[in-house]
């Protein structure tokens, strides 16, 4: 009997993302909004600058009067937060400081270095140009203007913009609540003196880190032994916790001790995929729980127990799922970057390969990449030293150094 065909990665990713909808909106204070995704556009409540302001220290003048050698009477000064109260009259100048409101009647600023103060007057040593060194009212944004669209993930610099719009709160999508469930009799937690036949639990740290950086709230749900009743009980408990996403690690293949798929199915999950044309990470599954007495919907992602495979699958599947659930715009597939091979590579087989690689230089700004000499998917030391995953498409022919390629940068 022929083996069932492996599902292409792009098709599996499309199926996964097609099931995901943005979570409900909530309002949060700006100091809690970093990394959150906007559920509604940010609309400015004020015009900035609110008035014409000086971009430099100098003097506000009428450009037509401030010719080379002209001497003008200094009528007063304007500083940031302390504007000049009057209107500039003919023959006058007003001392200005950076950020100060330009007084009515002035249409130019002569910078301090191009003047000479003479008691209560100022001599102009460089003729003024109308509009020079003035930041016009509304030059940054105007009241009612949309400055950030919905679906935008807020960065540190965005928070400054939102605050400048006179907004102390923003509407964002709720963070996904995610639980990590590990399976395997061989697993022990770090720091407890594992024996030679045991494996130290490491996946939750890498996978949990990917999830947190993608905006999720992450809970460690513990380690389950390789017994069906325990596995089902752990899945039920996770379901009762009201999670948006349940991620399992280990037991995703088809061996006698790989119980996660049958346990999920027995507890009511509809699993969509089980084998992907992917290396590392072929034994991967996803699906969801729907309805019932628990959360309206819980997405399920079953990752391999192999630590490198689990991490790569978290990048390829979990990260975009979480971003889509937060309503982030533009999440529709692999986000690969053009690069150039630094060494020759062999032809690839029928699976899409994500090879651990290092960026060894740049040519005209394009990264030069070389795959690690060993690609064993259990070796975390090589993964830690990698800068990127070199992508080799299914059936890709051998390629020479200098030829174009694609990479997935490792930026976590």
From TrEMBL:
<dbReference type="InterPro" id="IPR008284">
    <property type="entry name" value="MoCF_biosynth_CS"/>
</dbReference>
<dbReference type="Pfam" id="PF00994">
    <property type="entry name" value="MoCF_biosynth"/>
</dbReference>
<protein>
    <recommendedName>
        <fullName>Molybdopterin molybdenumtransferase</fullName>
        <ecNumber>2.10.1.1</ecNumber>
    </recommendedName>
</protein>
<keyword id="KW-0479">Metal-binding</keyword>
<dbReference type="InterPro" id="IPR036688">
    <property type="entry name" value="MoeA_C_domain_IV_sf"/>
</dbReference>
<comment type="pathway">
    <text>Cofactor biosynthesis; molybdopterin biosynthesis.</text>
</comment>
<dbReference type="InterPro" id="IPR001453">
    <property type="entry name" value="MoaB/Mog_dom"/>
</dbReference>
<dbReference type="InterPro" id="IPR005111">
    <property type="entry name" value="MoeA_C_domain_IV"/>
</dbReference>
<keyword id="KW-0460">Magnesium</keyword>
<dbReference type="InterPro" id="IPR036135">
    <property type="entry name" value="MoeA_linker/N_sf"/>
</dbReference>
<dbReference type="Pfam" id="PF03453">
    <property type="entry name" value="MoeA_N"/>
</dbReference>
<dbReference type="InterPro" id="IPR038987">
    <property type="entry name" value="MoeA-like"/>
</dbReference>
<comment type="similarity">
    <text>Belongs to the MoeA family.</text>
</comment>
<keyword id="KW-0500">Molybdenum</keyword>
<feature type="domain" description="MoaB/Mog">
    <location>
        <begin position="179"/>
        <end position="324"/>
    </location>
</feature>
<comment type="function">
    <text>Catalyzes the insertion of molybdate into adenylated molybdopterin with the concomitant release of AMP.</text>
</comment>
<dbReference type="InterPro" id="IPR005110">
    <property type="entry name" value="MoeA_linker/N"/>
</dbReference>
<keyword id="KW-0501">Molybdenum cofactor biosynthesis</keyword>
<dbReference type="InterPro" id="IPR036425">
    <property type="entry name" value="MoaB/Mog-like_dom_sf"/>
</dbReference>
<dbReference type="Pfam" id="PF03454">
    <property type="entry name" value="MoeA_C"/>
</dbReference>
<keyword id="KW-0808">Transferase</keyword>
């Amino acid at each position: 009997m022929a083996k069932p065909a492996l599902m292409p990665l792009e098709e599996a990713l499309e199926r996964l993302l097609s099931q995901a909808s943005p979570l409900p909106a909530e309002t949060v204070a700006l100091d809690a909004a970093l990394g959150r995704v906007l559920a509604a556009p940010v609309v400015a409540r004020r015009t900035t600058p609110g008035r014409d302001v000086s971009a430099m220290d100098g003097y506000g003048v009428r450009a037509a009067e401030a010719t080379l050698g002209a001497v003008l009477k200094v009528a007063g000064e304007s500083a940031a937060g302390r504007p000049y109260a009057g209107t500039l009259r003919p023959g006058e100048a007003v001392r200005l400081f950076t950020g100060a409101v330009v007084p009515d009647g002035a249409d130019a600023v002569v910078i301090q270095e191009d003047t000479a103060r003479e008691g209560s007057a100022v001599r102009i040593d460089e003729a003024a140009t109308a509009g020079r060194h003035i930041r016009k009212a509304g030059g940054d944004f105007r009241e009612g203007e949309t400055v950030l669209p919905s679906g935008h993930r807020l960065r540190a610099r965005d928070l400054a913009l939102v605050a400048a719009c006179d907004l102390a709160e923003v509407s964002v999508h709720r963070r996904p609540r995610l639980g990590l469930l590990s399976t395997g009799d061989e697993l022990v937690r770090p720091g407890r003196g594992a024996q030679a036949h045991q494996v130290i639990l490491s996946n939750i740290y890498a996978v949990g880190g990917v999830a947190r950086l993608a905006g999720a709230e992450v809970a460690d749900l513990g380690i389950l032994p390789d017994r069906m009743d325990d596995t089902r009980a752990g899945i039920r408990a996770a379901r009762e916790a009201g999670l948006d996403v349940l991620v399992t690690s280990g037991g995703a293949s088809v061996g006698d001790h790989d119980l996660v798929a049958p346990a999920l199915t027995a507890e009511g999950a509809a699993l969509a995929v089980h084998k992907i044309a992917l290396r590392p990470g072929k034994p991967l599954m996803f699906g969801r729980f729907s309805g019932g007495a628990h959360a309206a919907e819980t997405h399920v992602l079953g990752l391999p127990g192999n630590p490198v495979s689990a991490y790569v699958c978290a990048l390829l599947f979990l990260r975009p799922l979480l971003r889509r659930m937060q309503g982030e715009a533009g999440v529709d597939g692999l986000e690969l970057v053009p690069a150039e091979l630094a060494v020759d590579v062999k032809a690839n087989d029928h699976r899409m390969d994500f090879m651990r690689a290092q960026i060894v230089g740049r040519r005209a700004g394009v990264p030069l990449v070389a795959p690690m000499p060993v690609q064993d998917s259990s070796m975390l030391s090589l993964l830690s030293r990698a800068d990127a995953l070199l992508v080799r498409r299914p059936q890709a022919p051998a390629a020479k150094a200098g030829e174009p390629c694609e990479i997935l940068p490792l930026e976590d």
